[in-house]
């Protein structure tokens, strides 16, 4: 086997590779697709992988996997997500998305890579290129996973249910990373719990329809929903200890037919973030109790509470995460690596490790210049119509560096 890939050699090869990666990033950014609809994206990823003499496989519909088999040694998996969001892009970039897609309810929506999955795809392709170009410097197997449907918690489960770990080598560890509104070239990593669990609920409030001039003949579901929404704000402020991190967000409210009609139903959706199963169950029980009690107080039919999707907790293996903190510090500089508290965002990446009981680590890398970080309010965050790295080369380079050194470190374990 050749000498191991050094940080200096990775940097040298990246300097040649980055112009190609930046071009690919712009292409992916301009062509986002909604969750579980990533047909163009999957096909384009497959083209790039075949150009590396790899044989991509489909799992879960639009999920793509490529196995880089390089002789005897450990098996490591690396995961990148691929879906966009129903957001109208407002970045002003000359490669901004004008794509549109159809939501599950049949409505048409603009689509944007507002969470940075275009960056994740491009970084993963860069890692695959360096691994295949330097086969003499490592031994083992790397499973590259391009996962659809992360935003709706469908993709990882779909790939696993489609027999992923029955048809490709099972890894001894899983790695992944996420771009975020931090300084370009910097990395943040949590030891232990990294991201929250998430529950998304749809609540249908039922009432009794009547003319707007005769409220006494109605049970107004809009007023009732308003009472529910107001009372639900007390779950965090009055029922959960201040020592616990919990978020309860009412995300959408729909109801009404016409200004002079009291409708027979209204609907709202909500998102809950928690960090432990005990608190999760306590919060969900409180939400159900409040919603049903408010309906009863109004003499309304019982409302329905539907689970739309849920994310598991993302838990970084402490020993692996602590090792990576040192590896990253050696690779990009100690001053650019930070150990952080868990994020309240959620991820389904952990399912790839949890289902086969292997450790995983998930970290964040920054995307913005010092000038942008210094602006009032800082850079736009993920899921914003304004989110897009302003230091594309540095951002992609950091993602490729940290991704490949994490993989190589595991292969040498």
Automatic annotation (TrEMBL):
Mn(2+) binds at residues 115, 117, 151, 178, 383. Residues 201-295 form the Peptidase M20 dimerisation domain. Keywords: Hydrolase, Manganese, Metal-binding. This is Amidohydrolase. Pfam families: M20_dimer, Peptidase_M20. InterPro entries: Amidohydrolase (IPR017439), Bact_exopeptidase_dim_dom (IPR036264), Peptidase_M20 (IPR002933), Peptidase_M20_dimer (IPR011650). One of its GO terms (molecular function) is N-acetyldiaminopimelate deacetylase activity. The Mn(2+) ion enhances activity. GO terms for biological process: diaminopimelate biosynthetic process. It comes from the Bacteria. It comes from Brevibacterium luteolum. NCBIfam families: amidohydrolases. Its cofactor is Mn(2+). The keyword Nucleotide-binding does not apply.
